[in-house]
Each structure stands twice: as C-alpha cells, then as structure tokens.
Write a structure and sequence with these properties.
alpha/beta; Protein-Tyrosine Phosphatase, Chain A
C-alpha cells in the first residue's frame, strides 16, 4: 500500500502507520507516523513536518547517532522530544560489527538476527518504548517515532503498537515490510556503501548493502519469539517489561482507535 508513504526531499522512509483494521475498530490516520532521522530535511520538508502538527517526537537513536546527525527543526518547534542516553558507555554495536565483519551479505543478515534477539530487553529500548506508549496514551496530537533508518528499532515498536491495537498479524508484517521500498534502497545504497568504505577502508558489495538496508520477516519474528519465550506472549512482554497494564492500554485504544 504505497499510499502510506509520505514523500519528503531529505527524510527517508516516512509513512503513516495508522488506518489499519483493528478488530471491529480501525486505527486512525494522521496520528501515528514513523520515519528515518530528519538531519537531512530540507526547508520544504520542515514546512511539511510543521503542517502535520506533531505533538511528540520519539527519537530511538543512541546519543552518538544524534550527535552525528542532529535532526533539523522548524521555526516555532514545540513538540516534546523523547530520547535517552542509557547504555552509552558501551560501544555502538553497529560500528563494532563493521570493524570485525567481512561485510558479506550473510554477515549483515546474521548481524540483524542477533540484533533483533537482543533488542527487546536492551535497557535503553525498554525505557524508550515505555515512554513512547505513555506518550501515545496522554497526547492529543500526532506522534512521530524514528531511529536512524526507521526500520529496526522503529519497526518493532510500530509492530507492537499494531498488536496492542488489535491489527491482524498479516497487516503487521505488511506494514513492517513497507521499509523495503526498492526505489529508496537503490537511491541510498551507494551512499551507505561509501559511508562504510570511509569507516572501514573496505567497500561492501551493493548486494550486501541492500541486505543492510532491508528488513525481513524473520527479523521481526525473532524479536517476537524472544518476547514469547520469556514472557509467554507479546502481551506478557508489554505488561511485564513495558508496564502496559489494562488502564494504560485502554487509554491508548481511546487515543488511536476510531
């Protein structure tokens, strides 16, 4: 459903992840947005962002990522920004991987599988995911959640939002896979290829870079399997780890369901 994508000049992977059937109800459109970072936003992009009326922006990136690519803001910006610096004493796992990897397609795939296994119980993700849901519950205006590329950390929290709302599993997967926009990947792959060469002195193939830029169903299922194994179900994870009790869930439903 390509109409979910919202075109910007300098912001990748921006889309509305509302407007899905959720049982007998439906997710509202114009309330839930997801994207990559806004560091390369043009002035026209900022004007377009301002027009969305965003009340909260949840930035899932590490502090080193925010420092390297600070998001641009529009004149009169007043949205609440949710972010944290938890775990910054440890090296960025992506950059550590690049140093040690052979940069093959298989190595990027294996890295992502390991990343998704660890993601649900990382302290920084737990804090940000909890605060995201709290913001959804209390905020009247639209919310934008993003990370660097808007695909992994963002993909899991959006999928959990869909699950909580009652969106069908097939639609959850479909929305997650919308990140795999061939046009976007082909345009950005040479840029990421060059960034990796500058950092490592080695140039991965375009095929390997495409793997790094894409998502796969098994990635999300790996994260969900970890949640089920340790908490019995996705709802058990939401309750036990993120603290989403029945009253908070009800407030979230009231906010995002029509």
């Amino acid at each position: 459903m390509t109409s979910r994508r919202i075109a910007f000049e300098g912001i990748d992977n921006f889309r509305d992840f509302g407007d899905y059937a959720a049982g007998t109800r439906r997710l509202r459109s114009g309330r839930l947005y997801r994207s990559a970072h806004q560091a390369r936003a043009t002035d026209a992009d900022l004007e377009k962002l301002a027009g969305l009326g965003l009340a909260v922006i949840v930035d899932l990136r590490r502090s080193n990522e925010r420092e390297r690519d600070p998001c641009r803001r529009w004149e009169g910006f007043s949205a609440q920004v949710v972010q944290n610096d938890i775990g910054q004493e440890r090296a960025d796992p992506w950059h550590e991987f690049l140093k040690e990897s052979d940069l093959s397609e298989g190595s990027f795939h294996d890295y992502m599988m390991a990343y998704y296994r660890a993601l649900p119980h990382e302290a920084r993700h737990i804090d940000l995911y909890r605060r995201y849901f709290e913001a959804v519950a209390r905020t009247e205006g639209p919310i934008l959640v993003h990370c660097a590329a808007g695909k992994d950390r963002t993909g899991i929290i959006c999928a959990l939002t869909h699950h909580l709302a009652g969106v069908h599993d097939d639609d959850i997967v479909e929305d997650y896979l919308l990140t795999n926009d061939p046009e976007r990947i082909e345009a950005r792959a040479p840029v990421l290829q060059e960034m990796i060469r500058e950092e490592t002195g080695r140039r991965p193939t375009l095929g390997a870079v495409r793997v790094a830029m894409s998502v796969a169903p098994e990635y999300m299922e790996t994260a969900f399997a970890v949640m089920r194994e340790q908490h019995g179900s996705l709802d058990g994870y939401l309750d036990e780890v993120l603290g989403l009790d029945a009253p908070l869930r009800e407030r979230i439903h009231d906010r995002i369901l029509g």
